[in-house]
Design the sequence.
């Protein structure tokens, strides 16, 4: 050691350093420069850098690292232990004096050194007569069932049993929640108590319709989907409890659900079932908004229409003596009134334009006659373009505001829809529009007058 570690050789006591290795496993006595007392350690430990066990607070040296010397404030609170025999940060549980009461409280020296106070004052431990429920919250203690209130703290997180004034059955709840004012879980419908808040007790009329579930085990307003009995058919129908509380009727009777043999099209509308061409009529409801393909049993014409429209009485467009017939001659028309323009198709131009004229509309131009199906396709193309690029007026699919777009002819409108012409960035003023009408071709003015008459 004297040769290899002269620094250690100068600290070894009671042995010649030339007689041992520096890393010997023997326990030697060493001198510490911080105090007069010597300490014990192996040579190997000292070579690894281990220093004085007193300086490292691994051993107590009275007058150097004991609690009385290093933390006299803690030593003044220590009860039943000589503060000269322990280190201030000891992991041992000791007893301490609290200025708020006479009962010593237990805590580790390390916890006390970090500033942790009395366990009784911080409600970490129960001290009868000081912080127990019977002392701090006698109102809660009077409701406690099956537990001595002097053995628990009012804000405990333990689940306890409590007495409710509304029923005999005690309810479970933690002390902390009860101290915050939260009451009976049965009265708040968080738990089921048969005879108090179950469906059989609160809504016996609903309980009588329940199928496959004991009504004493569920709330009337449960969000669970249950099965219910309907007087109109033997098949139970599914519905949530809170929907039944809102007096919602059977999903099959209200046609919200399909029940083959009860509310399908083949049963309710056999005349429509005979004409539907793209599905089994027993798998759809007649009032469905879904479009289907229909074949007229009289003329064989096929067309597409929602089932709900057929159920309301809409028939074959080719056979009807009213409305629009895609097989008959038709006209496409453009009309306007103050601030609005519209496009449409008709099989009877004088009647349709005359009807609109009574609402202030003026005919701008017509094209026709042409095949009705062609007019329909042309109108559909324009409507789709208006919806996507221009925007239609609320509640309509064929009218738009002249603040968004104003055209002078159907040809101009068709070119815009087909992308052959760019939509004008700036619209004409009222004066310019009047000039355009005055300069319109005589043939167009004549056609407008004839059509309106």
Sequence:
């Amino acid at each position: 050691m004297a040769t290899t570690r002269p620094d250690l050789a100068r600290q070894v006591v009671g042995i010649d350093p030339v007689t041992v290795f520096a890393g010997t496993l023997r326990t030697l006595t060493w001198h510490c420069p911080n105090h007069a007392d010597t300490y014990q350690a192996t040579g190997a430990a000292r070579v690894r850098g281990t220093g004085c066990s007193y300086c490292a607070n691994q051993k107590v040296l009275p007058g150097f690292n004991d609690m009385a010397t290093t933390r006299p404030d803690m030593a003044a609170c220590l009860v039943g232990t000589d503060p000269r025999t322990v280190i201030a940060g000891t992991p041992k549980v000791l007893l301490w004096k609290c200025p708020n009461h006479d009962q010593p409280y237990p805590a580790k020296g390390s916890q006390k050194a970090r500033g942790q106070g009395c366990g009784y004052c911080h409600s970490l431990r129960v001290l009868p007569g000081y912080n127990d429920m019977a002392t701090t919250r006698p109102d809660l203690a009077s409701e406690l069932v099956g537990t001595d209130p002097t053995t628990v703290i009012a804000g405990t997180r333990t689940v306890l049993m409590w007495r409710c004034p509304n029923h005999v059955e005690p309810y479970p709840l933690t002390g902390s929640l009860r101290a915050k004012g939260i009451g009976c879980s049965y009265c708040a419908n968080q738990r089921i108590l048969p005879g108090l808040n179950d469906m059989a007790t609160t809504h016996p009329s609903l309980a009588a319709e329940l199928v496959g579930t004991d009504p004493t085990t569920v709330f009337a307003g449960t969000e669970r989907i249950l099965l219910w009995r309907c007087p109109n058919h033997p098949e139970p129908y599914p519905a949530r409890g809170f929907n039944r509380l809102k007096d919602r009727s059977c999903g099959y009777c209200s046609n919200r659900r399909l029940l083959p043999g009860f509310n399908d099209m083949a049963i309710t509308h056999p005349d429509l079932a005979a004409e539907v061409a793209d599905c089994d009529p027993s798998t759809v409801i007649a009032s469905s908004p879904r479009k289907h393909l229909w074949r007229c049993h009289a003329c064989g014409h096929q067309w597409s229409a929602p089932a709900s429209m057929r159920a309301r009485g809409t028939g074959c467009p080719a056979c009807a003596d009213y409305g629009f017939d895609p097989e008959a001659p038709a006209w496409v028309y453009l009309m306007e009134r103050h601030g609005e323009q519209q496009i449409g198709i008709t099989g009877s131009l004088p009647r349709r334009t005359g009807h609109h004229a009574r609402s202030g509309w003026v005919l701008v131009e017509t094209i026709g006659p042409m095949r009705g199906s062609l007019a329909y396709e042309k109108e559909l193309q324009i409507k789709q373009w208006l919806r996507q690029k221009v925007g239609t007026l609320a509640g309509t699919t064929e009218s738009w505001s002249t603040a968004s777009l104003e055209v002078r002819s159907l040809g101009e409108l068709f070119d815009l829809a087909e992308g052959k012409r760019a939509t004008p960035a700036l619209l004409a003023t009222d004066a310019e529009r009047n000039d355009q009408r005055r300069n319109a071709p005589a043939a167009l003015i004549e056609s407008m007058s004839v059509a309106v008459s």
In short: The chain is about 25% helix and 20% strand.
